Amino acid sequence: MRRFLSLLVVAVTTVASVSLAAPASGVTAAATGKTVTLVTHDSFAVSKPVLAAFTRKTGITVKVVQAGDAGAMVNQAVLTKGKPLGDVLFGVDTTFLGRALDAGIFTPYDAVGLDKVPAGLQLDPQHRVTPIDFGDVCINYDTKYFAKNKSVAVPQTLDDLTKPEYRGLFVVENPATSSPGLAFLLATVARYGDNWRRYWQQLRANDVQVVNGWEEAYNGSFTAGGGKGTRPLVVSYASSPPAAVYFSDPRPSKSPVGTLLDSCFRQVELAGVLDGAANPTGARKLVDFMLTKKFQADMPLQMFVFPAVTGTPLPKVFEDFAEVAPNPLSMTAERINANREQWIDQWTQTVLR
Amino acid sequence: MDRPVDPDRAAVGVVARATRTAAVALPFAFLAVFFVYPVATIVGRGLVVDGHVDAGPVLDVVRDAGLRHVLWFTVEQAALSTLLTLAVGLPVAWVLARVAVPGRTFLWAAFTVPFVLPTVVVGVAFRSLLAPGGPLDGLGLDQSLGAILLAHVFFNVAVVVRAVGTVWERLDTRQEDAARVLGATRARAWYEVTWPALRPAVLAAAALVFLFSFTAFGTILVLGGPRFATIETEIYRSTAQLLDLRAAAGLAVVQFLFVVALLLVVGWLQRGAPALDLRARAASARPPRSARERVGVVAALTPAALVVGLPLAVLVARAFDTPGGVGVANFRALGTLPERSALFVPPTEALRNSVLFALVATVLAVGLGTVAALAVTGSRRAIWELLLTLPLGVSAVTVGFGFLVALDEGILDLRGSWMLVPISHALVAMPFVVRLLTPTLRGIDPRLREAAAVLGATPTRVRREVDLPIVARAATVAAGFAAAISLGEFGATAFIARPDRPTLPVVIFRLVGQPGTTNFGAAMAASVVLMVLAAAIVVAVECLRDPVATEP
Fold it and tell me: β-pairing, A257-265 with A209-211?
């Protein structure tokens, strides 16, 4: 028994010391400027050759830390202000930007290449954050469904969705728990102003379905998703059509989903150098790198977003199947930040109670 | 006693005692650093204002009608889930313990598989059965309390089958037989002889199922839909979405108090448990003798087979469902999807990470848990056992965000380190290990030890030859469980900053998070891989823990 216990002590101590040694080495590397840590959300992706190119060019290795969805990531960054989880934060979007800026978690930096980003995407005049990409939240429709049911036309506007022929056909995400759900709520506020609650009352009367996450909506309820749903209209992204083609085997000649361009809400994703970064020089280099053609051109097929830098070549599947709304709905970060919780509460009262 | 003390031996004794004290202190130190301290820090952030504790947010949970409703619903669904899981699980435990049915090992494995499946995948399976267009649409259970309860039964039936079955199969049937011979009815014999022996294990299982349902997160959100809220989902919303630490802390304290109260009640109910006469397993199992018994076996297995089997069948069917008909294309995609990505790695690579983390988490959980269970069994004070179970009753969000704000300095700055992943898995698995071991340890007949001592064995030898074999067997079962928990764990890890080593559940989560039929197919296939892995672990444990004994 005693030997058994001693063995356990040895095993546990070994594991413990390994665990304590691991981050220590990370800290040393950061101090010498050889590592830069990127804090980002769970949907972040980048291809290996692109990261390798950054390391070749600068001698700096990128370590990536993923911190939940965009909202949870911003909250983690706010809570660790001054002792950040890393050097650069990527993925704060329009809906949570105000919270991040108010908390003062970033230090300003004028990134190289910012002049090639359209003014409409530059959300912070003080350059605490740099726009990297945008991904519009839009209503998607099942093209096969509407081709088969000739009596029902593809809806063209947000107003159409309240009409009786679209009764029971639409599924949305709960804005309290889902990022596209929140963006679509903001889209309706941007479109209808003070009357947005009436619009939602009409949607509710027209049997709109609410689920908590994008996965349940797209893969569970949507007819053209992974599941066997019954609703051909879903709140998703402008990039869903190219993604649906790209991730099909064999690849179809026509996308199984289309985009209702009238419903699109522009979500800009931004990056910033974190205040208190262990490697601020490396952090600035990484933000610069995110605006280079190499990184920008890699993003569409990795994260299914649109590059922020004008003139970045798009992959063929985007050229062929992605439609971008010419005049998307949008809202300032300040207005969102001042009203976000109140709107979500009002929406809950209107749609769920 | 007046004996000359050999100074060398005395020194050895001191060292041994020190070693033992250090060993016993380890699990508690682990909990103090990785559980108590982070949770206290994040709750303190919400409740301490200018050096004063503000009890307002705690009282709000009781004062506010909306939150009161949330509290009530949390308790209601957890209680119903527990009763339903016991109702479905106990008959299975009986069959597996007492009836020599063909394919018992397979059944053990099948009922454990749900444990490792990510909620998002189980959500897909349940919804394809229950939602409009699904075969069970007629039940009207989509996005309802019923769906939540069924999912909790699905996930937790293994807990009941394991915790109760492992005791039941070792009970000496001769006591019950004796009672029957003395004229007791079958029901009375069961109630007076078998039930008292099983009660501690049933209570332990019930407590675990209740805690799991009480702090459930994914099942409520995915299967209940937006109309249901529990304390756990509200803590998640307050912390991860609203950044309202005050409200989150109030909810966390109420959740904590409730869990403590529950554990105290369970501890009180478990008091005075008789020492069990545990025998080699399967000595008491026999094939069904009559047609009536065969019907009984089928009736006992059917509910569980439906609740567990149907969703699993859906997942397997989906994994082999490709645009070109039934095939293995989804499995072939596992090695290549997604292309060239540095972080969003192919499931095969994620599988390696999962296995590595599971190994570390199992070593931690079983090592610390075994020591803790031995310490707890030796002590009269229930408080330690209670402390060891608490991690199951505290919100994963609270623990995850607690890590973030507490472990931020010096050698404890583990944020972003991969070690935090197995550590958080071990936190969830350790209470299981303790709960699975203590009934067995308590059940060791003291007469066995006395007999050994009378026959001249030293205390050390008694421990080695009497306790250790029994502990080792139970620890093997616990290790299987710990590995399964680690393989499937997503709750706590979703709320810690994860390093670039995604586990299989994380990759599955990402695959279902993107449009496209190949992503969805690959997610289903990866889930089947997880299922097979879990089943393999269970079968291995079954073969290892001890060869089925035959009646002498």
Answer: unpaired
Distance separating alpha carbons of residues B123 and A216, to the nearest angstrom: 8
- Chain A: residue nearest B344 by CA? A45
The pLDDT, as a whole number, for residue B302 is 93
Cβ atoms A172, A184 nearer than 8 A: yes
Most confident option among B6-15, B41-50, B192-201, B382-391:
B41-50
Q: CA B459, B462, B465, B467 torsion: positive or negative? A: negative
What integer pLDDT is reported at residue A30 of this predicted model?
46
Enumerate residues 235 to 294 of chain A having a beta carbon within 8 A of any beta carbon in chain B.
Answer: 236, 240, 243-250, 257
pLDDT at residue B145 is higher than 50: yes
pLDDT, residue B13, reads 67
CB contact (8 A) between residue A219 and residue B363: no
pLDDT of residue B42 exceeding 90, the answer is yes
Assess whether pLDDT exceeds 50 at residue B552: no
Q: Which pair of structure tokens corresponds to residue B180?
A: 């029957």
Asked if A19 reaches chain B (Cβ–Cβ under 8 Å), the answer is yes
H-state helical runs in B215-346: 218-219, 231-236, 245-269, 291-319, 329-332
Q: From the centroid of its chain, how far is CA B77? A: 18
Query: Do B128 and A46 make contact, defined as CB atoms within 8 angstroms?
Result: no
Count the residues in chain B: 552
Partner residue facing A45 (CB), from B341, B415, B518: B341
8 Å CB contact between B368 and B437: no
Task: Label residue A62 left, alpha or beta by phi (over 0 means left) and psi (-120 to 50 means alpha).
Answer: beta
pLDDT digits (tens, 9 = 90+) for B178-219: 888 888 888 888 888 888 888 888 998 999 899 989 998 888
Rounded mean pLDDT of chain B? 83
- Name the residue among B234, B254, B232 with its Cα closest to residue B242: B234
Q: Do the Cβ atoms of A275 and A107 come closer than 8 Å?
A: yes
Q: Residues 134-173, chain A: which have Cβ within 8 Å of B?
A: none
Distance CA B201, CA B211 (A): 15
Report residues of chain A scoring pLDDT below 50. Answer: 1-5, 7-10, 15-31
pLDDT, greater one: B9 or B385: B385
State whether residue A86 sits within 8 Å of chain B by CB.
yes
Query: How many helices and strands in chain A, by DSSP H and E?
Result: 13, 12
Which pLDDT belongs to residue B487? 87
* Mean pLDDT across B36-61: 89
At B217 the three-state DSSP class reads: coil
Average pLDDT over residues B313-341: 83
Burial of B348 (0-12, 13-18, 19+ CB in 10 A): middle
Residue in chain B lying closest to A39 (CA): B497
Say whether B515 and A352 touch across the interface (CB within 8 A): no
pLDDT in tens, A102-158: 999 999 999 999 999 999 999 999 999 999 999 999 999 999 999 999 999 999 999
Question: Nearest CA of chain A to the CA of B368: how many Å?
Answer: 8
CB contact under 8 A, B343 and A229: no
A87 contacts on B by Cβ (under 8 Å) = none
Q: Residue A279 corresponds to which tokens in the numbers above?
A: 């490697």
Q: Is the Cβ of A18 closer than 8 Å to some Cβ of chain B?
A: yes
Whether A27 has its CB under 8 Å from any CB of chain B: the answer is yes
Report the predicted TM-score, pTM, of the whole model to 2 decimal places: 0.86
The DSSP code for B278 is B
Structure tokens at A145: 């469904």
Nearest-CB residue to B518 (from A50, A247, A352): A247
User: Where does residue B63 rank: exposed (0-12), middle (13-18), buried (19+ CB within 10 A)?
Assistant: exposed
Among candidate residues B146, B35, B170, the one with its CA nearest the CA of residue B80? B146
